[in-house]
Specification:
- This is DUF3899 domain-containing protein.
- Keywords: Membrane, Transmembrane, Transmembrane helix.
- It comes from Pontibacillus yanchengensis.
- This protein is mainly alpha-helical.
- It has one domain.
- Helix content is about 80%, strand content about 0%.
- It contains three helices and no strands.
- Helix 1 crosses helix 2, helix 1 crosses helix 3 and helix 2 packs antiparallel against helix 3.
């Protein structure tokens, strides 16, 4: 239950941020909905990857300069927590809305 609440709050916050960004640019929200969702997800991906890279870099530098074993090098594994789940759900919802909006019936 807690996961769905956090995911829902993430979707609401992401919608508000993209709405404010669309107001700042002077475009409709539906024009930046999908690309904005993918961009925010990409930022989350890079933060997780950058954290793993920084830890590996520090561990190898410590091992190289001092010889102490500080945990070794870890493989990057993307973790899907409640916030990332909300980001993925937002991308799916925005994809559906974008397709419905731009399809000519």
């Amino acid at each position: 239950m807690r996961t769905f609440v956090i995911a829902g709050v993430t979707i609401i916050i992401e919608t508000i941020l993209l709405w404010l960004f669309s107001l700042w640019l002077g475009v409709h929200l539906l024009e930046i909905l999908l690309l904005g969702g993918i961009s925010i997800f990409g930022i989350a991906w890079f933060f997780q990857q950058g954290s793993t890279y920084a830890n590996n870099h520090i561990n190898t530098m410590t091992r190289g300069w001092t010889g102490l074993d500080t945990g070794g090098v870890r493989v990057f594994r993307f973790k899907v927590g409640p916030v990332v789940f909300g980001l993925l759900m937002f991308i799916l919802i925005s994809l559906i809305i974008t397709v419905i909006y731009y399809v000519e019936i």
